[in-house]
Amino acid sequence: TEMNRAHELDPLSIEKLIAIGEVNFVNREYDKAIAQYQRSLEMDPNSGFANWAIGRALIEKRAYPAAMESFKKSITLSGDSPDELVELARANALAGRKAEALKIVEDLKRPIERRYVAPTSIGSIYAALGEKDQAFEWYERALRERDVLLVLLKVDPMFDNVRSDPRFNDLMRRVGLAG
Questions:
Q1: What is the largest distance, in Å, between two alpha-carbon atoms of the chain?
Q2: What's the pLDDT tens digit per position in 133-179?
Q3: What span, in angstroms and rounded, lies between the C-alpha atoms of 130 and 166?
Q4: pTM of the complete model
Q5: Mean pLDDT of 71-88
Q6: For the chain, what is the HEC assignment?
Q7: Which tops the pLDDT comparison, 133 or 15?
Q8: First vs last Cα of the chain: how many Å apart?
Q9: Where is mean pLDDT largest: 71-85, 99-113, 144-158?
Q10: Radius of gyration (Cα) for the chain, nearest Å?
């Protein structure tokens, strides 16, 4: 409600459209999220973030080829951000393209000294690959490094593959989100 009101007050704000899409995304209303992201693309066709966001929603709809295309566009538009590669790896993993996903994750892990890649992001790729032990090793690293993405544990679909694991509830408790 507040984001819709903010958009009414500032109808030319792409950020507000995307923020409304993000609310829809975490509420698992993927079609609504995509519609918001598309509206922002109409205002700025070169928005790497909007393409990235569309790709994330398409992953959750299991439209993996379309998601991969969105991430490839986003990579072109966003420069050296690792976020697009992380999601491309997740899309490949969930589509059963394990070798492609592992190649991306190895590339992401290699340049850690020169650009930051959130440990939670690496963990999400391993979770998508079904490699829960590896995922939780990265989530533990994220906790030690105080990775800000851990605040999304309760709401982000990237954690859905590990929610049933008892270690997930323990992680939520240690982050301060349980209860």
A1: 47
A2: 999 999 999 999 999 999 999 999 999 999 999 999 999 999 999 75
A3: 15
A4: 0.88
A5: 89
A6: CHHHHHHHHCCCCHHHHHHHHHHHHHCCCHHHHHHHHHHHHHHCCCCHHHHHHHHHHHHHCCCHHHHHHHHHHHHHHHCCCHHHHHHHHHHHHHCCCHHHHHHHHHHHHHHHHCCCCCHHHHHHHHHHCCCHHHHHHHHHHHHHHCCHHHHHCCCCHHHHHHCCCHHHHHHHHHHCCCC
A7: 133
A8: 26
A9: 144-158
A10: 16
Query: Cα separation of 57 and 53, whole Å?
Result: 6
Is 113 in contact with 93 (CB distance < 8 Å)?
no
Contacts of 128 (CB under 8 A, 6+ apart): 89, 90, 93, 94, 101, 158, 161
Q: How many other CB atoms are found less than 10 A from the CB of residue 155? A: 15
Q: Residue 111's pLDDT is what? A: 61
Given a contact cutoff of 8 angstroms between Cβ atoms, the answer to whether 56 and 21 are in contact is no
Average pLDDT (24-29) is 95
Which structure tokens are listed for 146? Answer: 């105080």
Look at residue 119 in the predicted model and tell me its pLDDT.
Answer: 95
Please name the residues in contact with 21: beta carbons below 8 A apart, sequence gap of 6 or more: 32, 33, 34, 35, 36, 37, 40, 53, 57
Which of 81, 87, 82 lies closest to 69, judged by CA? 87
